[in-house]
Amino acid sequence: MRIVTAKDYDQMSRKASYIVASRVILNPKCVLGLATGDTPKGLYNELVRLFRAGDVDFSGVTTFNLDEYAGLSPENPQSYHSYMEEHLFRHINIPPEHRHIPNGAAQNIGAECRRYEELIEQAHGIDLQILGLGRDGHIGFNEPDVKFEKGTHHVRLTQSTIEANARFFENRDEVPKSAISMGIKTIMSARRILLLASGPEKAEAIRGAVMGAVTPDLPASVLQLHPNATLIVDEAASAEIMRIK
Ligand code: F6R
Q1: Whose CA is closest to atom 11 on ligand 1?
Q2: pTM exceeding 0.85
């Protein structure tokens, strides 16, 4: 794994935006894998800035989001559909029919997972997958487990993730208990991975992901096996690996 250090969150976001923008400039029809959460908000702001400056054109780009809460309709303000609309899609020119996010409101979740995997295959896979990192080392909603889940699947969220996500909801009972998520095989099949981590609460997970054993107990550790993975980490999140180095 290539490790790029950044001073702080803003610099991490700018460095990430240059990597994503360069992919789109070099391959205007590229397929991007997108994440939600707090981490990529700065990256998305920077991409919007580059788009407004006329430096990057997203009209040929296709996107696949990592995950969506089960039981939330796309219109729900807490859904990842709404998040993507607010932080990226409504500001840039990716055609609506090129944007893909699992449908959390699907009646048949299993069928929705299979449909999503097929769509990714039809797009010839993901060129660049952007990832955030959970405090427990999760990527997408692949939670610590005894095995790596393969394809897009229905996942029960752990208590720690439910608590971490409660900040986005008015009350804790509203936080969905399950989600649809790309699996580890889906993520590892991306041709390039860009993992972002910022803040002291990620330092422990970063240490495990970068320097620990590869184990489904810390799902991000599997990225050590990816041939083209880059981590951009700020000073606070890299504190543990810098101490050991
Ligand atoms: C979001 C996702 C999650 C987040 C992770 C970190 O689509 O898949 O794995 O990347 O929970 O969340 P933040 O960035 O809010 O710390």
Answers
A1: 134
A2: yes
